[in-house]
Amino acid sequence: MIIPIKVSQPSYSRPVVTILLIAANILVFLHEISLDPYSLHDFINQYSLRPYYFHWSNIFTAMFVHANWLHVAGNMLFLWVFGDNVEDILGHGKYLVFYLLCGMAAALTQVAADPLSRLPMVGASGAIAGVMGAYLVKFPRSRVVMLFFLLFFFTFELPAWFMLAYWFALQLFGGFGSIAEASQGGTAFFAHVGGFVAGILLVHTMGARERYSRRKDLYW
């Protein structure tokens, strides 16, 4: 198991939106586990995104629904590690819009890749992939501290550009592999790809806050 736990890039403002997004996702998941199996099945069907039964509202509700503890914990860890710096440069309002647009792009990419799927798509990973794409653009020289477990825990550092580019390559190859194998269920790789690319494009379009545009040496 190898996971990112922190980055070297400092943040100069409180990540209010990132914290609220994490809280919202955890609260929704706590509600999920409080439901009986029948109610949970109905909840998933109502708020997940199923491409064959596509509805625009489900693009946004599905971002806050998760399949299990490991799913929500992993997503929230990635959002916490990378989200604060992206929120820092965009500002709270633009960051929230950025996050939701990345989630939308991720969902639509997965729907386009498998439009006949009746399986529920859930999770914040597409939107978080957008945050990671923005991080790659803005903070390529940052260092990511990785936690590795093999009989015992130890940490090591990787350049952000390498870690994020490697992660994106895994999603891309995983997506094409899922097509070749005609797999059903599992990871929505193309949602990750779509969200990551959207994050790269949107962070250029939306731009940094004025006070950060004068400090490019920190993140370019």
Structure description:
With 220 residues, the chain is mainly alpha-helical. Helices cover 63% and strands 10% of the residues. It is built from nine helices and three strands. A hairpin with a 1-residue loop joins strand 2 and strand 3. Helix 7 (160-181) crosses helix 8 (189-206).
Question: What would the keywords be for this entry?
Answer:
3 strands, single chain, mainly alpha, 220 residues
| Number of E-state strands | 3
Kindly report the average pLDDT value. Answer: 91
Shape: globular
- Strand-residue fraction? 5-15%
Q: What portion of residues is helical?
A: 55-70%
- Low-pLDDT ranges: none
- C-alpha end-to-end distance: 30 Å
CATH fold description? Rhomboid-like fold
Rg over CA atoms: 17 Å
Order of helices and strands: EHHHHHHEEHHH
Count of the domains: 1
The CATH superfamily turns out to be: Rhomboid-like
Give the class from helix and strand content and strand pairing. mainly alpha
Task: Give a quick account of the main beta sheet: strands, pairing sense, barrel closure.
Answer: 3 strands, antiparallel
Instruction: Please state the second-level CATH architecture.
Output: Up-down Bundle
Counting H and I runs of at least 4 residues, what is the number of helices? 9
CATH class: Mainly Alpha
Q: What is the spatial order of strands in the main beta sheet?
A: 1-2-3
